[in-house]
Write a structure and sequence with these properties.
This protein has 12 helices and 11 strands. It is an alpha/beta fold. Strand 10, helix 10 and strand 11 form a beta-alpha-beta unit. The protein is globular.
Length: 310
């Protein structure tokens, strides 16, 4: 068995797709097991090549009993906690970034400013496995969802990454006035903010989309446009080449943004590298507050123009 650890969220999983596919290609005849949260299974199915999902929510609980592990691949972090979780299953080999605290010294050095997609591809190349950082696509799930909608997604896990609802609403209202069919999306926990944005934009209750993860992926795959913050749905737009405008802060697009060579994705960032990491409190990051409604609408028009010929 080949065991891969990526026990994180939607955006993290999507950013790990090229590395995960590279592992699959390197061991075509082996069982490939992915350690990830169970709720991500609908998205994991869209990657292809994963034979088994080993359920884990974070790094605190030990992994269940497993068949002998030939290679354990840490696509989760730099250690030591993630390294130790994999070391506990006694793999014949551990592929991971160097972590003296975990006693793992043969991996490459972690680079904090590296783009998340390229980071894991570099790890695999260190161990002799070629990885294509552009291999970001996902299969399109079969789901009965609206086609050609413009998605506005105001939520994000961290409060510091949430552009003010009033500004999302202003964008949604003007896009709707321009002829877009606007849908507001959000997780179950984000429904209150989605409903608030819809109300402020003057949209009806049907404008708030309630979807599971698979349906959300299908909605993005068939969408006209996405406007969101730096959160998981933005990575789905990248996977499906859906035109997107993504608002960044506090982490810059150089770390988590869409491929810069694609003109139908636009990352907006007004921060500086002196501003590192999420703010600990409930305040919106200054880089986001510097983003204006007109700037977002101009970017939306720009990515749509490029999408015609993309």
């Amino acid at each position: 068995m080949i065991l891969v650890l990526r026990a994180l969220g939607v955006g993290d999983l999507a950013a790990g797709v090229p590395a995960l596919r590279a592992v699959r290609a390197a061991f075509p005849a082996r069982t490939l097991a992915l350690v990830a949260p169970a709720w991500l299974t609908p998205l994991i199915d869209l990657i292809g090549g994963v034979d088994r999902v080993v359920t884990a929510d974070g790094l605190t609980a030990p992994l269940p009993a497993l068949p002998p592990v030939e290679v354990a691949v840490n696509l989760h972090g730099s250690g030591p906690e993630s390294h130790r979780l994999l070391q506990a299953v006694r793999p014949a080999k551990l592929w991971a970034f160097a972590s003296p605290d975990a006693g793992h010294l043969d991996g490459p050095t972690w680079a904090e400013e590296e783009h998340e997609v390229r980071r894991w591809c570099r790890l695999l190349r260190h161990y002799g496995v070629p990885a294509d950082h552009t291999d970001l696509s996902l299969a399109v799930p079969e789901a009965d969802v609206p086609r050609g909608a413009t998605i506005v997604h105001p939520g994000a896990k961290s409060p510091s990454r949430r552009w003010p609802p009033q500004r999302y609403a202003a964008v949604a209202k003007r896009l709707a006035a321009a002829g877009h069919r606007v849908l507001i999306t959000g997780s179950a926990a984000e429904q209150p903010i989605a409903q608030r944005v819809a109300g402020l934009a003057g949209l009806g209750p049907d404008a708030v989309a309630r979807t599971g993860l698979g349906e959300l992926a299908a909605l993005v795959a068939h969408a006209r446009l996405l406007v969101s913050g730096d959160t998981g749905i933005a990575h789905l737009a990248t996977a499906y080449r859906t035109p997107s405008v993504v608002l960044f802060g506090p982490v810059p697009p150089q770390r988590w943004g869409p491929p810069p060579e694609r003109p139908y994705h636009r990352a907006i960032w007004h921060g500086t590298r002196a501003e590192r990491g999420d703010l600990p409190g409930p305040d919106v990051h200054p880089a986001l507050l510097a983003v204006g409604v007109d700037e977002v609408l101009d970017a939306a028009a720009e990515v749509e123009r490029h999408a015609v010929t993309a």
